[in-house]
Amino acid sequence: MQLIDRRLNPSGKSLPNRQRFLRRARAIIKEAVSNTSAGRHIRELEEGGAVVIPASGIDEARFRRGQTGRREHVLPGNRDFLEGDRLPRPPGGGGSGGGGGEAGQGSGEDQFSIVLSADEFLDFFLEDLELPRLERRQIAAMKAETPRRAGYATAGSPANLAISRTMRNALARRTALNRPRPEEIAALEAEIEAAETRGADKEEIALLMERISILRRRAMMIPYIDPLDIRYRRFELTPRPIAQAVMFCLMDVSGSMTEHMKDVAKRFFMLLYVFLKRRYEHVDVVFIRHTDEAKEVDEDTFFHSRETGGTRVSTAFDEMMRVTSERYPLDSWNIYAAQASDGDNERADNAETVEILRNKILPICQYFAYIEVGEAGRDTGLSSLWRTYETLGDSAPAMRRVSSRQEIYPVFRDLFQRQLSGAGA
Amino acid sequence: MKGPLLFEGADWGFDTLQRAHDAIEKIAVGEMGLSVYPNQIEVITSEQMLDAYAATGMPIYYSHWSFGKSFVQSEGAYRKGYSGLAYEIVINSSPCISYVMEGNTMTMQTLVIAHAAFGHNHFFKNNYTFRDWTDPSGILDYLVFARSFIADCEDRYGVAQVEGLLDAAHALMAQGVNSARRRRRPDLRSEEARQRDRRLHDEKMYNELWRTLPAGAQKSAPSPDDSLVRKLLELPQENILYFLEKNAPKLAPWQREILRIVRLMAQYFYPQRLTKVMNEGTATFVHYSVMNRLHETGQINDGSYLEFLSSHTNVVMQPSFNDPRYNGINPYALGFAMMRDLERACLKPDEEDREWLPDIAGCGDPMGALLDIWANFRDDSFILQYLSPKVMREFRLFDLVDDPKDPTLLVDAIHNERGYQRVRSSLAQTYELANHEPQIEVHSVDLAGDRKLILRHNTLGRGVLVESDSRKVLRHVAALWGYDVLLQEVDPDGRVLREHTAGASIS
Question: Which pLDDT score is estimated for B5?
């Protein structure tokens, strides 16, 4: 007998097949992922986990007989039946034998669950979402150049010597110029030696010597490797476009924003944050909160600290303009903004808000989304800010209302659906 | 005769495994007279067991998404605790490979070695279905060849192409076996060489000039009549995969080779489907006898023996039909009960045994009788011949007739004098594959017309095919055949009940 310990063999033998399966069942899994994610917390969203998919979409068809026709079953455990007894059909059995006999035949399970890793989960979740109008504005940036192989050169550093190409050229040249091969010379030498030992006449030997000296001269004149043959691998620096984007998160933190509203807004921003971080290499996020004055803050303060005061949306826009002009030149950054508010604004500020939004913010933004958060189950009608934005007509930002956690995912998907027609409208 | 204990406690080590194997071998081969392939026992982790599950238990297999699907399924069920893992997997190969889990206790390892490395191993080596249909010494090499061939095709022709072909071939796997006895024994070792020769031949015969010959006017051959076509194509043919491999007009050589791989694998697994009850019954009987003998000779202690009994009892439990745990007849339970019953009938027969099991009752040599049975029967014939009234009474078997024309179910026979014969033959029939799987054969090809392939399902009065699935499978057949396909469902009188068609997709 041979005993083999296989425990140290690499595991994960089934992973390639698993990948293939996920690819195959992509559409179904994606649907399942977006269904599951509706009820999830953001943290969990990043954790992956199990999703349940219907087995019908990925079944492997076989020729099967239907349940028609007379069938006989032999079953164990008869306690009180006698020959000739008639039994009612089990409910819902659809003609399957007594007490669910023959289970396991037929098409098998109806659904099963798949455990997805965090990355897989997010991939499925964010698959068809994209930042709209991402123009590749920035060409030359810090790590934007990469060397790429581009043919051969006659000059270069020794490290880049292309040996096989050089030898090929050399061989071609030697062949073309008919350089005598070492074997030919060796053969001739052997012939001379043979002639000498057998005592051939001088004339013959001189003739052979003459031939060999010609060959030797040719071999001297035609080098084995000529500088002409040498080639180097050539590299070209190609600029790599980088999609740089900055995302402004604007939020009203005045007293009228309840904890619930802030929670909903926070979820939206966090989702956005997850999305951006995955999708793009260079994404800056700027958090601006405002009451009747606006301030750029860090993430933690943005979500967690409380402020009191009135509400002037225009101050947030001013702050955004300031940050943009200081740090994000328009020719190298794509600018996106998302604003969350309960819709309150000081009446006197409305005109100025529209003014600055129309003339300064919207022209520089690739995309501006406005999320109006409300209390769940309470329809308060159109808010003043909403109505104000609506006066912008066709150029108004993308606006959605959200009042509960469950709506966040649909709204988010809605806003960032790929191939958005006329983004920003 | 009391021997020293083989081991104490639950922990196992490689030397204890070796000792246990040697002790078992002495009993199984020396006393019981089993004849086995050399054993190779491999210790694996639970994760590797899950991997092995997915690839039909084989150590090497080609890649396909459906294996990923079954991996995801069993992994999910295992993680949630719905299902435990098997204690072992055994492969019909020579040397016979048994996987044992590292998490088993030493008692379980002993049980598993007796069960798999001797019980199953003996059955693989001696049962006629395996001898006829499988080539255990060549299978591992063949799997290596199959995997690299298919991976190579994926590189050359694209993953999607190969995957589509495998999907089609897998859909026809059940129709890819020859159920009649083979003329010659399979020889998987020569498969790779055969494939290489064929390719070299093609390369040698290739001549660029042939391509430049002007195409003459198409000669229209006289349309052959149907009976001649059927004779030339060796129809009817039950093995649809074989037929397509040999005759589908549009397939490239690599596509034929992949069909062949799937077909040979289907054929390799075919005996396992014929002998579930016997195979498990044999293995269970062997481990039961071996463990008892080890205990009798003092090589395992009472604690181990009780642990063995407890897990053995779980394995051979048969829930009643109305028990929520009921999931068909447990092949371990039925097989083991029948083997034990035969052993008893050989040694202490009563009147009933002399009537029902006349050829072995009282012969006094239970092992001789069992070895003969293990070699020469498969499930349906085994049950038909050796299911005794005593086992039927133990299991309280009854025969239930489900006739859709009838509003109620009829108890046709129970375990009494009048019913034994009917219960026995009815149970034997449920183990006949022909009764589970639709009998579909290649009936004819319309060579005079549009090259339509005509398949025929002989319903044998047991109902027609499920429409949606059949349509999908037929589409696969049409894709392989390259032209339209017609499937007729005929009743025993030859009347056509229903027809399905699938058109060849334009590719």
Answer: 84
Residue A82: its chain B contacts at CB < 8 A? Answer: 411, 414
Torsion of Cα atoms, A217 then A221 then A224 then A227, to 10°: 170
Residues in Cβ contact with B366 at an 8 Å cutoff, skipping those fewer than 6 apart = B342, B343, B346, B347
Q: Which of residues 437-456 of B touch A (CB under 8 A)?
A: 437-438, 440
Kindly state the helix (H) or strand (E) to which residue A361 belongs, with its residue range: none
Give the CA distances from residue B455 to residues A406, B222, B226, B239, B242, in Å, rounded to whole numbers and listed in that order: 53, 24, 14, 11, 14
> Quick one: what percent of chain B has pLDDT higher than 70?
93
- Return the number of other C-beta atoms located less than 10 Å from residue A367's C-beta: 23
Partner-chain contact B40 A4, CB within 8 Å: yes
Please give the structure tokens belonging to residue A364: 């520089």
Strand partners, B100: B43, B88
pLDDT band, residue A44 (cuts 50/70/90): low
Minimal-distance CA residue of chain A relative to B419 = A83
Within an 8 Å CB–CB cutoff, is residue B463 touching chain A?
A: yes
Query: Tokens standing for B28?
Result: 């199984």
- Distance between the two ends of chain A, CA-based, in angstroms? 75
B51·A75 Cβ contact <8 A: no
DSSP code at position A241: -
Among residues B48, B6, B9, B44, the alpha carbon closest in space to that of B25 is found at: B6
Out of B25, B54, B323, closest to residue A17 by CB: B54
Reference A348, options A389, A312, A309; nearest CA is: A312
Q: Which DSSP category does B407 fall into?
A: S
Please report, for residues A93, A97, B427, the alpha-carbon distance to residue A90 in angstroms, rounded to integers and kept in the order given: 5, 8, 21
Contact flag A64-B414 (C-beta cutoff 8 Å): no
Most distant CA pair in chain A, distance: 124
CB-nearest partner of B63 from A4, A16, A107: A16
Mean pLDDT, rounded, for B25-38: 92
Residue B26 corresponds to which tokens in the numbers above?
């002495």
DSSP-assigned beta bridge partners for residue A310: none
> Closest Cα partner for B499 from B472, B470, B469, B477?
B470
* Contact (CB, 8 A) for A67 and A95: yes
For A77, which of B77, B102, B322 is closest by C-beta distance? B322
Tell me what ipTM this predicted complex has: 0.79
- In sequence order, what are the residues at sequence separation of 6 or more whose Cβ sits closer than 8 angstroms to the Cβ of residue B483? B249, B450, B451, B452, B453, B504
Alpha helices in A162-312 (DSSP H): 163-176, 182-197, 202-221, 259-279, 299-304
**What count of CB pairs under 8 Å joins A to B?**
272
Inter-helix orientation angle A405-416/A26-37, to 10°: 140
For residue A67, what is the nearest residue in chain B, using CA coordinates? B463
pLDDT band at B199 (very low <50, low <70, confident <90, very high): confident
- Provide the residue type at B36 as one letter: V
| Average of per-residue pLDDT across A82-93 | 76
Mutation pick from A19, A26, A65 vs chain B, by most beta carbons of B within 10 Å, is A65
The predicted pLDDT at position A305 comes to 72
Give chain B's radius of gyration (CA, Å).
26
Query: What is the per-residue pLDDT for A98?
Result: 38
Average pLDDT of the segment spanning B343-357: 90
Retrieve residue A418's tokens. Answer: 């790929």
Under the banding of pLDDT at 50, 70 and 90, the label for residue A6 is: confident
Give B210 to chain A, closest Cα distance, Å: 33
State the nearest Cα–Cα gap between A39 and chain B, in angstroms.
21
**Helix or strand holding residue B470 (H, E):** helix B467-481
C-alpha B97/C-alpha B92 separation (Å) is 7
Structure tokens at A424: 């920003």
| Of B429, B321, B161, B114, the residue nearest A70 (C-alpha) | B429
- Residues of chain B found within 8 Å of residue A107, distances taken between Cβ atoms: 469
